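User: tokens in, sequence out, please.
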């Protein structure tokens, strides 16, 4: 399957981004929708911002991921870019990754940041999603 690259003009610069849909497993065995996002600010050889977005949806099926259709919008990507820049992302740098982790403090309207895809000891996504839902009530 071909990955679709999207473009976004923000702050006088054009950014390229892509989002890949996957799931992440909670400690209790349930799965949650997770979107892995990469954003480049100076072409494909530049250092991208990488972030894994955990949907706040609890779903309506057996597993939250079964009925979740959450997907980042341009406003979400703008918030990711703003946060990365505030944390020291160098747009023109070459090579490597600039990872936004749970500790970055970024929370989007429909998503939390999760480290579970690359760090097995990261906090339980289920507990975090349920906690986010209680905060919204």
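Assistant: Sequence out:
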């Amino acid at each position: 399957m071909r990955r679709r690259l999207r473009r976004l003009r923000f702050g006088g610069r054009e950014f390229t981004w892509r989002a890949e849909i996957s799931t992440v497993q909670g400690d209790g065995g349930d799965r949650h929708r997770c979107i892995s996002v990469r954003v480049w600010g100076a072409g494909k050889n530049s250092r991208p911002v990488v972030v894994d977005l955990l949907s706040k949806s609890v779903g309506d099926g057996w597993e939250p991921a079964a009925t979740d259709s959450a997907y980042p919008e341009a406003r979400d990507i703008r918030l990711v870019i703003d946060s990365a820049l505030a944390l020291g992302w160098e747009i023109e740098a070459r090579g490597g990754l600039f990872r936004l982790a749970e500790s970055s403090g970024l929370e989007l309207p429909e998503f939390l940041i999760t480290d579970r895809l690359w760090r097995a000891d990261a906090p339980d996504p289920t507990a975090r999603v349920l906690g986010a839902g209680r905060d919204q009530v």
